[in-house]
Amino acid sequence: KRIFQQAYDLSRLYHDTWNEGENIRSLAEVAYTLGEYPLAEQMIYEGILLSEKIGDRVGIANGLGFLGTVLFRLGKYDDCQMINSRCIELLHDLGNTHGVTWQLLISAELHRVHGRAEQAN
């Protein structure tokens, strides 16, 4: 965590927006792993905003995918579905079929959790 924090601080100091976004996502992964889901959610949103600021569509897609996972863990299923749909759209535009497949699996699980298994097909 300390190393990611140092990297984040340096990227901010040198106004390196791309690395700042990557480093905040790394810190979010640490928070997620430690079970600090609200903190992870906040950091991911910040990372997405940084990626949007510089037009980094891959960074946005990565952030949205991770955000969907965190929202699912927090039980924010409607928000998760909205983010997941946006992520699928962006991944499709980027030609990332693996990412689309992964997000579709998450979508199916959301439908199962909501008792709408027929929509998971």
Structural category: mainly alpha
What number is the mean pLDDT?
90
- What global shape is seen? globular
H-E string: HHHHHH
Count of helical stretches: 6
**What is the first-to-last residue Cα distance?**
40 Å
The proportion of strand residues reads: under 5%
The major β-sheet equals: none
Q: Catalogue the unreliable spans.
A: none
What is Rg?
15 Å
Number of strands: 0
Q: Helix proportion of residues, in percent? A: over 70%
Set down the secondary structure blueprint.
Layout: H1 2-13, H2 17-33, H3 37-54, H4 57-73, H5 77-94, H6 97-113
Helix pairs in contact: 1-2, 2-3, 3-4, 4-5, 4-6, 5-6
Describe what you observe in this structure:
- There is one protein chain.
- By secondary structure, the protein is mainly alpha-helical.
- Helices cover 82% and strands 0% of the residues.
- Helix 3 (37-54) packs antiparallel against helix 4 (57-73) and helix 4 (57-73) runs antiparallel to helix 5.
